[in-house]
Protein 1
Amino acid sequence: MQPARFHALRDKVMATVDKTLAEPVALTFFKNGKVDPSRPKIEIEAVLRVGGGKDSSVSGGSDRSWRSRIAAQKAELHIDCSKYPDLVVVPRDVVRAVSRHGEPRFEVLTIDERSMTRLVLHLGEK
Amino acid sequence: MLARIALRIAAFEALQGKTQAADNVFDSRITTLDVDGDGKLVTDQTKPFITIYTEGSKIESGIEQRSLHKSGPTEFMIEYGIAATMTVVNPETEEDEVLPGIAGLDDAFEFYLDVVGRQITNALTDPNDPWAEIWRGLSSSIIRIEHKRTSDASGVRVAAHQLLITLDLLPDPVFGVPIAPTSIWAKLFAQLETVNHPFLPTMRSLLGLDETPLGHEGSRRRFGLTLEEARALCVTPPLPAETTEPNFAPVSQIVGP
């Protein structure tokens, strides 16, 4: 990976943000529904933000032909990739917020790894 | 209407414990699935659900006069689903299962839903279950069966199926008219009594069994006839006998004035 001139500033900003806002989360990696033996479980520190609860029908919208309603919220985990450069995450991996009440579980729905600052995991409830 | 109530109660009882959703069967649920039947937040492992609803019905022909007791082709809906929050999780490995030995992947969700669909069919066609028998006896036939499917992955990964059954629901028993012991209503009320169902007293009061209407009054209720219409159709006895409605059956000879 080639360095860029803004990297020094970027790393300093991320480290400062993480020092205040990051929380410990446990990542468990999966392959085909089973724990992936090549990627052991780790605990990292990253910024976790959970969205406001919104309820929708099971079809995801307000489709009136479906009666059952689910209240579930999107969440995002922002990981400092310069701190964890070897981290590989794929959809279905499980994130556990070990420092939150009840230690809630999330599963990775999509990954945004192209940001200049962070690896962003879009999470769904589990 | 009583037939709709009966349909829901019978299906609800027939499905209890018969599917992967176990006793997580709901009747006409409105609130979101974050809360259980008592309104408490479900923080423990949520279970997959089944909900039953009686939806609309429309009768546009065959309504003799004003037969409001008719039920018509009624939509009976069974909705069941599974979300990523509803799988069984092993707390050490974080691995989850929808069914024993089957990991909670997307195709497993769909497999689970079809398994439940089959279990629902097995439960409602069970010849040995008194509740299923009552559910079957409340309609003369099923007119239409529709299977629907949906899924979503915005806040949580969820998939659901809907079984929409349009059945020719029996008309409600007419108010005041005694119920034949062989009728489905007698069976239903006997069954409700064996489980001491909380709805039973109200339902019974709606039957009007304490009233003892005259025959022509029962007919007027059944068809919604005005007095003039009933007289014109000779549903009522001759005018002098209208209020007493004596039994003319044993009469063998009528002597003129």
Protein 2
Amino acid sequence: MPSLCGLLTVVCGVTGCSDDNPIAAGPEQLVVSGYVYAGEPVTQVTVAVSLPLDADSTAVPAVNDARVSLARNGRWYDLELAPGDSGLYHYTGADLVPAAGDRVDLEVEYGDLHVTASTRVPPPPRGLSASAHQLVVEADTLFLPGSGMFGGNDEGALTVSWDREDGAYYMATVESIEAGADSVESLFPRPAGFFGSQVMRDSLITIQPRSIRFYGRHEVTVYRATEEYAELSAFRVQNLNDLAEPPSNVEGGLGIFTAFSSASVQFEAVRP
Amino acid sequence: MTGRASALATWLLLIAPLAARADQRDLSGFVYDADSGDSLPYASVVVTGTHQGALTNANGYFVVVNAPAQLCTLQVSYIGYHSQLIAIDNRSARQEPLRVELQVEAVGLAETVVEAEARYEVWKPGAEVSQITFSPRQLGSLPALGEADIFRSLQLLPGISGVGDGSAGLYIRGGTPDQNLIIYDGMTVYHVDHFYGVFSAFNANAVKDIRVYKGGYPAKYGGRLSSVVELSGRSGDVNRVQLSGGVNLLSAHMFLEVPVLEMGSWVVAARRSYTDVMESGLYSSLFDLTQDDDVVLPARAQSRSGRLRGQLAQQTTPLFYFYDLNSKLTLSPTSSDFISFSLYSGRDNQQEDGEMAGLGFRRPEAADVAGTRTDENETDWGNLGGSARWGRRWHDRLFANLLVSSSVYSSDYYRNRGFTGADANTPFQARALYEEDNRVEDTALRLDLEWAAHSAHQIDFGLGLSDIRTEYYGTFGDSLNVLDISTRARETSLYLQDRWSPMPVLELTAGVRATQHDATDSLYVEPRASIAWDLTDRFRLKSAWGRYHQYINNVSSEDVLQGNRDFWLVADEAMPPGAAEHAIVGARYETTGYLYEVEAYHKDMGGLVEFSRRLGRGLQADYLGSFFYGEGIARGIELLFQRKMGTVNGWLSYTLGEVEHTFPDINDGQPFPASHDRRHEINAVTSYHLGPWTASATWVFASGQAYTAPESQYTLAMADGQESSYVHIGEVNGSRLPDYHRLDLSLSRHFETQALNCSAGLTLFNAYNRSNVQSREYDLEVSPILITDVTMLGFTPSVYFEARFK
């Protein structure tokens, strides 16, 4: 039975040398959340690393000792770690204020990890205007949770509109800007302000009186968002059925680096 | 060259060979099994001392055109049978074709018969390029899981592989199982395995011959990108009633052969698992193979002293069975007419309900919560098909086969996962329904004609009409989004092929196949050619080239958590047919006892389809946008050494291969390895015969297959300050499972009693208990995320017993 013996010998030799791969953890990757606003200092660049798949905790491992650089139209600036250990980086000087149309680049180095990203600051929304300067808010207005802020067709609503541009994405916030303003008496708590979680292509929002929490001056800010942020916004919740991931414009890593421009109008919430 | 010279050359090459000489006479006949009277397809018939010969066709018929009109000797051989030398007096015309009977054991036959040479044991490389003839008769001598299995045995051949213990599918030269045209008695079979692929769907007792074209297949066949596997069902014993049966640790089978009206026979072969009645150790092992059996965490996690297992407990209640039934009625009302009706039915059903309860469920909205997850899971799939064939020998040189066939494949998958639970304050309730129903109906009419125009020209031509319908309905945990597709296509095909031997040592085959596919309103023309050149009696060079199309796609549906599934859809305007171009070159050196062969192949493929909800989800979720189309390249080289005969025989093969896909919208358009890409494969098979005993060993090695893996998790802060968590998926097929290797040993014995011929065997599957990994699964609903290695079978002994009434 020489053939069988030979085969067994070969098999034992090969299996004796076998090198089984253990389940390998995925490579650690830098995760960047970087937001730049036209006309404002750079204060929102967060750096973290990805977690092992089987980690006990989902707490984000912030990176507080990375080298973070940002370039505006080709000129580089070093960012510093903001107070705390949250992995938030900012620029402390006054000479870095991105403007609409600028190309902004980001570079992060952390150990052997190196990522880059770039974006272009979009132009601000044009033709922003409010339908009225005042919004009458009744104290006993019944706020129905879940009925939304911008929807509805109440006759007393205020609309803010702007020029629509093809392919443009927008978000809007409404904030009380008057210090010490009186609260509207309501049966249910009302939001203090709102940053629209949904990116929209519309060119109009409607502000219902029932969504207002304070009397006094309010500011409506409409942001022009980039396409990369619009895509990220569509993936706020990962569907475990398909595991679709948000697209990333961070080369060599994960996350988002994008810019916004904004325009704003004001109105006053008043008693009847 | 002048016009006159051209005409002369044409006459010499094409017309002159058609003229027969007075000292030549056609020699035709049939080759049968001497014991049962069953015809033997694709047997080799050679006129010794000449280069003239022929292969029998599917009905066992052969004709040697312009054979010497003298006393001559025929050498007839067929795999698994002793070759025979038969003295023939061909000086005068015969009224009836010859009847040649071959025996498994060397016994004298009519006319003057002597044993010519040793037989091939299990398989034999064919005369055509990349073609193999395989006999199920000797499969019992190879180690088997439970019982002899056709497709799992084919996986031991060079260039043919499975992806592991849990797959009887054939991955031939970088092609996927759906790219193989599987024909059983003329009907197309769409799903070819039982028990999630552990066994092939064909009962080895019901099959008498298998012909495999690994590539470069001839114009007679069409509709697949990769290869052809043609199975001929046994016709049965025409002389007496025969009953045989067998049992193993998983299933039982029987085979009944009944002579019919002295002009034919009827066979019934049935096989059914008894796993739903009684669970054997083998069944438990196999069931574990299809489950998430081994939780394997990285070393870092393993040190947590079983935190996960202590808090979540899962119970699964499985119920499984499969069966298949083959029946065939074969009649020969005249010496020139052959009629057969064949029926095939096979089905699998698995119910696998489970419940997991405890603390540690992960919810995106909250901390870990306690709860109960219920899982109703039922899968049912199978084939039903039938065919009717009329074969007629219109003339010694002209044989026709008319075939009508119908085949239905259906697969129904239902999974209902429910979750109820609560953290300290908030109750949770969720339900996810998954349904995937797929159906293929294939009706075909085919006419094949074989015309032996001359000893130098064998012409095959024919036409085919087919009507194929597919339906697919899928929901994926979200009842709002449904993928519901129904497609239908009618195809008309014509083919013509000439096998031309301008010299005795040279054979050129040129053919063309044209198919009109109405769903795309296009005509697909497929030229094909091959050459075989015998440099010496022992050394042959060969090459083949051809173009191929596939009009029905088996779409791979990506699921990185629980493994991919697939479904069939007919090609149409939205999903164009696949296309491939094969180029093969090889050489063979063969002695009486040994065979050395090398073949290299290159296959370009287009129109490949992937379905990925993960990659297809954009700003607007639409499943129709989740289909991706791309190209692929498969290339490799196969080396084979075979000892054909002797007390110890077997083969050793090595395949170096690569399969690379490129999809413009996947992996940033960069090439990535196909999931079945395996760089190195080695098969070693040996058998040792000692009297009634046979000992066998097989050892297989394959590089780890590619898979797409979830790699890490991360959190992103949105512009409004809210945070979203994600699982990051690595590059497409960017990870590799560990290498696969396995040794199987078997011992079998034949013995007789007064009434029975018996055989019994013992197989030690995976003798050194290698822990091969089939896939990795990820449960993202528990915390920490659960990573499971689905391992293949460990050391598994099994036994079988078979008996046949004398």
